[in-house]
Specification:
Blueprint lengths: L14 H27 L2 H8 L3 H7 L3 H23 L7 H12 L7 H12 L4 H30 L6 H21 L6 H15 L12
Helix pairs in contact: 1-2, 1-4, 1-6, 4-5, 4-7, 5-7, 6-8, 7-8, 8-9
């Protein structure tokens, strides 16, 4: 028999884990606050109310609102990066599969929820916040652009598409994504996520008909 002295109870959460959990809690609350109130209406008081923590605890983790914004944007950027990079890994992936992986990642429900879209466009539209955006997200944007240019360059070499400049094409495609995202945010009933992904795929099929067929119409 044992006296139970060696039995193990629930694993204790380390201080580092608890700190990371609190930081994430505040980041999630910031996303919610911006989605509800916009950048101008978002305050630390509203964030802490949504998170259910004190303002003092928020100030302990983030010494200023700008620091909180940077952490939130970096979290969203890392989330996007992890998704599309995970989908382009693996040997013998065709150029078609690689571009499709990036497109599907851009329209994944975990990435383009209306809450998160509201955050992105809040920063796009606020002149005072754009520098925070560039600092937190610029590297991720550059990585995706570089990967997309490399994929499209390979597609051009494979199929001999004429009068297609890889860089200009990728910049135009990125603008298309942003436009569809904006319509999803402004007109959710008319621009649903799956329909917007189909529209995106139809544009890609027009540009690269030897690699893609038009997306099937909705049933």
């Amino acid at each position: 028999m044992t006296d139970g002295s060696n039995s193990r109870g629930p694993a204790k959460v380390s201080r580092a884990e608890a700190k990371a959990e609190r930081r994430q809690q505040l980041i999630d609350a910031t996303i919610e606050a911006i989605a509800r109130f916009g950048l101008s209406g978002m305050t630390m008081g509203k964030v802490t109310e949504i998170a259910g923590v004190s303002v003092g605890l928020a100030n302990f983790h983030f010494e200023s609102k700008d620091r909180l914004f940077e952490a939130m944007l970096k979290h969203l950027a890392d989330e996007q990066r992890a998704l599309w990079q995970s989908r382009i890994q693996g040997p013998d992936r065709s150029s078609r599969e690689l571009l499709l992986a990036i497109i599907e990642s851009r329209f994944h429900p975990s990435i383009c929820s209306r809450r998160k879209l509201a955050v992105w466009f809040a920063f796009y539209g606020d002149a005072s916040a754009r520098e925070i955006y560039r600092k937190a997200v610029g590297d991720m944007d550059d990585e995706r652009l570089e990967a997309s240019v490399a994929i499209i360059t390979e597609m051009i070499a494979e199929a001999g598409y004429r009068q297609i400049d890889p860089v200009e094409t990728v910049l135009s495609i990125e603008a298309l994504w942003d436009g569809l995202w904006l319509n999803m945010l402004l007109y959710p009933a008319e621009f649903r996520r799956a329909a917007c992904q189909r529209r995106a795929m139809n544009v890609i099929a027009t540009l690269f008909p030897k690699h893609f067929d038009p997306a099937p119409a909705k049933d």
